[in-house]
């Protein structure tokens, strides 16, 4: 399978699984359910003091859902010292762009004038927000988007902020791990919540 359908994506997120393409296997799609699961706190989201000062200075204009496909393509750009290809294939881009058109996938964007300098995207379903990927072209642009996203989720009473896996970059924001069975129980409780991202 090279491209998941919208129905497959929605069913997957409701069950706690998500897709990734494998570029070394002709972008074949595999589904994942990490154990433990990585999460960010919503109400107790931690913004490091230096970053909080930068956020207050508002170096970029922050927008929601004005350039979703541009954001996901930014996230798909090769990165790192080895110019590594990411898991975001053309099939993933097409599927999530359709999910965005249907109101389930969302982007948070940092703009410097008319130039997109960073952003992130994810899926909102019930009381779940599943963060998928982020990118930056200017220092702190993606981090500022993340801070704005966390505030938005708190304001709208979301129940889970899923980040799949914890890494050192996300630990500074209070990222933590939850056993998969507990995550699935929490997910079952919140997936039917009437929560609007917009």
Walkthrough of the structure:
- The structure is a single chain.
- This protein is of the alpha+beta class and 198 residues long.
- It has one domain: 3-Layer(aba) Sandwich (Aminopeptidase), CATH 3.40.630.
- Helix content is 35%, strand content 27%.
- A 7-stranded mixed sheet has the order 4-5-6-7-8-3-9, with helices on both faces.
- The longest helix has 15 residues, at 141-155.
- The chain is globular.
Produce the secondary structure layout.
Blueprint: H1 6-15, E1 18-22, E2 28-32, E3 37-40, H2 49-57, E4 61-64, H3 68-76, H4 90-101, E5 105-112, E6 115-125, E7 128-136, H5 141-155, E8 160-164, H6 168-171, E9 176-178, H7 180-190
Helix pairs in contact: 3-4
Throw out a few tags for this protein.
198 residues; alpha+beta; Aminopeptidase; seven-stranded mixed sheet; globular
